[in-house]
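Subgroup meeting minutes
Present: P.N., E.W., G.H.
Scribe: E.W.

1. P.N. recapped why we're keeping a running log of single-chain structure predictions: easier to compare across weeks, and new members can see raw inputs and outputs side by side.
2. G.H. added today's entry (513 aa).
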Amino acid sequence: MYPAPNSPEERAAFQKLQAHLPDVFRRVTTDRRQPQTVVVVPSLSLDPQELAKVTGVHHYEERMLYMLMLLRRPRTRVVFVTSQAIDPIIIDYFLHLLSGVPSSHARERLFLYHCSDASKLSLSQKVLARPRLVERIRSSIADAANAHLVCFNTSPAERTLAVQLGIPLYANDPDLYDLGTKSGCRKVFREAGVLFPDGFEDLRDGNDITEALARLKESQPEMRRAVVKLNDGFSGEGNALFYFEGPYAGDGAGARGGTDLRSWIADRLPHLRFEAPGEHWERYHAKFQEMQGVVEAFVEGEIKRSPSSQNRVNAVGEAMVISTHDQVLGGPSGQVFLGCTFPADDAYRTDIQRYGLDVARVLAQKGVLGRFATDFVSVQENGVWKHHAIEVNLRKGGTTHPFLTLRFLTDGTYDADTGLFHSQSGREKYYYASDSVHSDHYKGIGPADLVDIAVNEELHFHSTTERGVVFHLIGALSEFGKLGMVCIGDNPRQAEFLYRKTRGVLDSVTRKG
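Output recorded in log:
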């Protein structure tokens, strides 16, 4: 019998398993031939209503198929679990990216399981609801003493799953979840001593939002707009903008019939400009009351960028820099994540690294484990860049799979002194990546069709030149007309050229069809 979920007994069992993780980490990192089993459960254990705003979100489990590249290690097993079966062509596509290992050898060490469940429950919840599936996963683990569990993010469900599988979780303890909320981030930034926008956290409802907006405006009368954020918003779609437009008593317009500032703000809250399509105040406010949130000054600037610093706290508690990116943003006010370029601009990437590491060290002191990213809004003023920390994504994110795809494909290393990546051959490598390559014309293209197009048009990744395109989210293409890609080149222009060329090819082929 397993301990009851979230019970003191389960927490104690979890901590006992976690205590073995440093030894597993040391053995595996010092010897690539060390036997190990990596159980991948790419569960998006986030608010289902927020996830529903992302087109084709149930296919986002496929983003972690880059983990199949671990099969290059000759004695590594990968157990990969999904909500629904993945098309075998997609699996073959990733296995063919392996170099130095026959696909048949890798296939023997790959164990694929699925729940046959397309519901909105998180994948981890689906697995836990199927005790026989849990036992099948357990039976695929060669040696629990040399195994660990990997997920997209952590919640109590992932802790329960780790305990039932009898292996440690290489990710953040779910009891530390609040550190990654919008409110928690602001407290971490304050402790780390990094610059972040003026604002207020731990807000509960519309009254708190009104008061926070009023106090921001009173402290900065020139303020034009502010942003309201749900604590657990995803990819920027939990954000909304408030515009300080129109007369009220506080600006000297009282004689012309203006109202006091707080009443004026309260009247205008239903007219927030939401990032998520179709969102409205009643639903947004109900969600805000449920998960709480923050209000912040919107960072203005004519020359503005959105870089991020990717960091990791390894299994022995060391905080380190992994990479930097410039984010590609969209949406009504440019707050929705669409993709990224690697590395961040050389004008500021070492600064972003330094600030990101300051945040990572605070999180490491608090017991955080695994990968995460700190996002910034950077504004150039009189030729000098100022970097405002915006949020910490305390999970794997949209920049995780592109970078690990590059690293696994090229056996390269990241140089923290320069912020550049060099393949094993010594070449500098760059990429342009997106999860949001979308067109209605792409609907109906199956995995086999995409592979055929990539081969015919010579878009696929070549191990000899270390250039080309790696696709992901392939399963979302036929139904939603959406896919992702990582376009790897020898310089930023080449990487972006590959991205635009691939989009052009897809547009041309599908519109002809």
